Amino acid sequence: MRNLFLSSVLTMLISLFAMGASWASETVKLIMTTSAGEVMLELYPEAAPTTVSNFLKYVDGGHYEGGEFYRVVRDDNQAQNNIKIGVIQGGMGMDVTDAPFPAIAHETTQDSGLLHKDGVISMARNQPGTATSEFFICVKDQPSLDFGGMRNPDGQGFAAFGKVTGGMDIVRKIQKMNTIQPKSAELEYTSGQILIAPVVIQTIKRVE
Fold first, then answer.
1. Which of 100, 112, 135, 151 would staple 144 via disulfide (CB 3.0–4.6 Å)?
2. What is the pTM of this model?
């Protein structure tokens, strides 16, 4: 009888542990509706808890509604950049100077294990620990954005935290849109990369 009781308790504990592991590994699914079409996302809070939590604060507060995808980087518009990448960048907008939430600690790809593969969503930043609302989506694999990559000279890479699960055709369509051409031969860091007609982020919502 005692052995049967202990066996039952052990079975229950194993079951609870398995349930806890399942909860910990759950993803957060989102649908992003833009003026160019819908994009489905999933985020990985177990791998990048700080970054996902920050992004969801903006999502749940409606802060991205009316934001834009305003910058695209591709083969033909980054002559000024020594290390080439392919992304679309968006968020609350380039003119936002006061984000509603403070900047977050930088979660590197070495910490999270999430690499900048095709369709991965990641945070834009200047120095490590300065990311707030702006984010980008990779078009094709972008290893120079990972920890140790030198797109950013500090070598810390960027904070990947999820990926596109549907609508990559929309992402690629946005990347191919027309950009404002430089007016002089002296190129700034983002010269030729700003969309003539930014794509509006109408909503980003959780999918239950």
1. 151
2. 0.87
